[in-house]
């Protein structure tokens, strides 16, 4: 991506943050006290569980961005692979959570950020 930016313009060095959203995993989040959950017994929307993996030097976090309608919610797993912007963790969590609310075809929050709606 950085090489492509330099091909566009000689001194063009945008800051890049590269995050992968993984949807296929077997992790579930549960509340310790049923009072803390939503009406379906799931963790509330916006709940984040994070960890830092020193050997890989990547940040991994789980974000439950949506309310469960039925059954147990499955959070999205995010891998921060590259971060020129040096986002603080809380800013990264808020950004990904807010991106789950901008899908044009849905009136509720989605499980993970979706690409912009295209025609067709």
Question: What's a quick, concise take on this entry?
Answer:
Helices cover 15% and strands 23% of the residues.
List keywords for this structure.
4 strands; 23% strand; alpha+beta; single chain; 15% helix; 120 residues; 4-stranded antiparallel β-sheet
Radius of gyration: 17 Å
Unreliable stretches (pLDDT < 50, length at least 5) are none
Judged by helices, strands and strand pairing, the structural class is alpha+beta
Query: Can you give the mean pLDDT?
Result: 79
If helices are DSSP runs of H or I spanning 4 or more residues, what is the number of helices?
A: 2
Beta-strand content estimate: 15-25%
- H/E series: HEEEEH
Number of strand elements: 4
Biggest β-sheet description: 4 strands, antiparallel
General shape? elongated
Helix content: 10-25%
Strand order of the largest sheet: 1-4-3-2
Gap between N and C termini, in Å?
A: 28 Å
Oligomer: single chain
Describe the structure.
The structure is a single chain. By secondary structure, the protein is an alpha+beta fold. A four-stranded antiparallel sheet has the order 1-4-3-2, covered by helices on one side. The mean pLDDT is 79. The longest helix is centred in the C-terminal third of the chain and has 11 residues. It is built from two helices and four strands; from the N terminus they run αββββα. β2 and β3 form a beta hairpin. It is elongated and about 55 Å long.
């Amino acid at each position: 991506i950085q090489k492509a930016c330099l091909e566009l313009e000689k001194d063009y060095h945008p800051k890049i943050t590269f995050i992968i959203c993984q949807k296929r995993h077997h992790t579930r989040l549960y509340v310790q006290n049923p009072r803390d959950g939503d009406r379906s017994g799931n963790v509330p929307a916006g709940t984040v569980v994070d960890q830092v993996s020193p050997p890989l030097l990547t940040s991994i976090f789980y974000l439950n961005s949506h309310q469960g309608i039925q059954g147990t919610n499955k959070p999205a797993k995010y891998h921060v692979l590259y971060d020129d912007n040096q986002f603080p963790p809380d800013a990264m969590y808020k950004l990904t959570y807010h991106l789950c609310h901008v899908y044009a075809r849905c009136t509720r929050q989605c499980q993970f950020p979706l690409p912009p709606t295209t025609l067709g």
